[in-house]
Design a protein that fits this description.
single chain; 188 residues; alpha+beta; Nuclear Transport Factor 2, Chain: A; three-stranded antiparallel sheet; 6 helices; elongated
Length: 188
């Protein structure tokens, strides 16, 4: 009688072990490549997800990977008001609070720069921030060596006349790559 009770129990344990093993060992296709170390997410343009045709011509969600994903993640971080994410209250950039300060333009720029560095400190894929500069500052050419001084001067003039500012950062990642990312805004 003891054998009759042990057999169903052993069968149940075998079924459980087989189901557990199937969960731990997914069947990957032969052309499967490992995950990108920077991550993988949906592409966002102007706050909207992007659709693109797949291999069969059907519309599908566009995916972004690699350093471009990191740059997009930084844009999302900077574009999210600090404390507005209900799941992560310390996520985001506190630009609104900065712009409400009654300070001179020079101090405002430094507050924006410091808050940018503070926000970028939340991104675990960043090892070091090499430079943070507005368009009209010399360090901007370090971040963007492809831009000539004449082009920088034109961009600085446009920034001054339109009140649209741009602040870019040159970052070293934990994987040893460099990424340039920027934020834009309207204000002093």
């Amino acid at each position: 009688m003891l054998d009759a009770e042990a057999l169903p129990r052993q069968d149940a344990e075998n079924q459980y072990a087989a189901a557990h093993a199937a969960l731990n060992q997914p069947a990957w296709s032969a052309d499967h490549t490992p995950a990108d170390p920077y991550g993988r997410t949906l592409m966002i343009v102007d706050g909207d997800i992007v659709l693109q045709p797949d291999d069969e011509g059907q519309q599908d969600l566009a995916v972004i990977v690699g350093k471009l994903e990191l740059a997009q993640g930084i844009q999302v971080l900077i574009g999210t008001p600090f404390g507005s994410d209900i799941f992560n209250q310390i996520f985001g950039f506190d630009l609104v609070q900065i712009l409400m300060q009654p300070v001179a333009t020079r101090q405002m720029r430094e507050l924006v720069r410091l808050s940018t560095v503070k926000a970028l400190g939340q991104e675990q894929r960043i090892r070091q921030i090499r430079a943070v500069a507005f368009v009209d500052e010399p360090a901007f050419l370090i971040i963007h060596p492809e831009i000539t001084p004449e082009q920088q001067a034109a961009m600085a003039l446009e920034q001054k006349t339109t009140r649209r500012w741009r602040l870019d950062a040159l970052l070293d990642t934990r994987l040893g790559d460099q990424v340039a990312a920027g934020i834009q805004g309207i204000g002093p």
